[in-house]
Amino acid sequence: MEILVPEESEAGKKQEGNTIVWEFPEGCYIRYSANDTWFVRPERFTIRQTSDPKIGGREIGARIPAVIVKMGPRSTITTRGPDGKDVVVSGHHIWVRKERFAGYQEPGITEYPAGSKIWFADRWTIQQEKFSVRVDKDVLQLSGLMTTVEETPGDTHFLLPSGCSQIIPGSSWGTFTIACTIPIALFVSFWMYRFRKGHVVEASAIGAVGVLFATVAGGWIHDSPLLDSIFSLTKNQTILALCAYGFIASVLPVWMLLCPRDYISSFLKIGTIALLVVGTIAANPALPCPTVNETFADGGPTFAGNIFPFVFICIMCGSISGFHALVASGTTPKMIDKESQVRLIGYGSMLIEGLVGVVALIAAASLPVDLYYDINVDLDKAPDFQKKLDELYEKQGIDRNAARARIGVQDLAHLKVQDANLAEMEQLVGGESLRGRTGGAVTLAVGMSRILTSASESFIDPAHTSFLVKYWYHFAIMFEALFILTTIDTGTRIARFLMQETIGQAIPQFAKTDWLPGSIFATAVVTLGWGGLVWTGSIGTIWPMFGIANQLLAVLALCLVTTILINSGRARYAPVTLLPMLFVTATTMTAGVIMVNRFLAMPDRITGALNLSLTVFVMASVAFILLWALARWIAVLRGVIPTKTDV
Fold it and tell me: What is the pLDDT of residues 240-257, one digit of tens each?
């Protein structure tokens, strides 16, 4: 940090214990790094420092004779607060339009208008949408909300204190819709198993209609201040709700909740994908994303790594997934009536999921480049990638300032959805927050809503289709959430089975999956396990190895099928599974080696050691099984071990 003091003025200095206190006069200039811009401080301010600053010689600044005072890293800028006490005011710079500044919403929270500019490291970036900032209670008492650094006739430049966090509001609309799927599933289960036994299609149709109605009704919840506050859950409340659902769904009989939910979601998934395929053909969206993104060729905000091998780790379920092998060996066999259904359910479902992957890629690639990255860059990483993003936007001919100029000017009712920027999309989807919503779910929902709204322009006046965006968006969110909840309940149930089977080796009673005390105990342990990881944020420390573990499970599944083919004397068909197995093994092991090197370099030694040990254990286990299987294959093919034709 450097301060320019005009030559006709001087800074006062005094000692208070181990702290040096500097009093600076009005009209000083200040910057926070060598590459930063100088800002005028019209008011007096104070700096407290634990050690002597180094005072440089006289220099000539931008037409201002001044003495540059360089402050040490432990310095804090202070200004006089309303109560007469010194308060810290170091942090982010925000430049806002005066006439749009909403001010303080409530103690500790400030709302900034659309079109504000934020200083990231060495550049300004425009925030197209409005946003709110919260200051923690302790910081608020010490620092206040913000300090006015500079004012011009049209703008005000604020400086936020350290410890601020941007508020990402929850979605009452989405929460209500997903919550409704649980009682709807219970109703469907009793309909098909008690009231109208065997009428699966009829019950599923009733459930699908109920879910669609809940999606529309979610808009009424969003518009009601009371109901909106009830269903706008915090992060921790959401975690507790998911844990409660996972526990209950895993303990209840399959027919009561898991099965009917899967029936409903299956019909909705197939119908939604069919709708999206038709909509994509009708809309014929342009794909503005570059074919090869050279800016992030070595890794970027979406995944940290080269295209090879990490693209094969990121794109999992749409092409191959080991988790499905676990599901197919745990819960699916219990729900199949006869062997002839296996091909349709197993192979057919993976074909549908592959189609989902292709359509999802089209939906994501159809988004404007800047809108895609506004959604997919984590808020914590935005300062790190802003420079490269600006370079990418310049290559693509995207003028970010044009979006600021039209704030408050566009008529959203007649805005073409394909022309909407982030701020306008947030309004079109019902006021939801879209920035920094990483993970792909919001990206797919926004892409689907744009495609389906554009497709509807074939039979609706394009000037009156914008109202459909929010319904398509929340329909897509509901469609995706059904996927996620299915993973939670099925994954928890499988983990419960595995735990009961393991404990059952020592206590035989636990091996009985229908023994209620054992089911409750195992489910509670599993739910507390994954719930605790999510609650504490520790899930993020081991998440990087999950993609690798998932693909290696797929390797084991392909290895098992290859072994069955060779053992049964059908080795001529083995290449069908052997070649994909070799490819997945090569890409995943390469990614594993890269990740191991990253774990070794992690500053947090404990986290690095945990990730390293887990990754190496999984890789070594798979390598051992592959070598064991290879020895078996060779022995069978050479006639050392006879084939088994009854397999």
Answer: 999 999 999 888 888 888
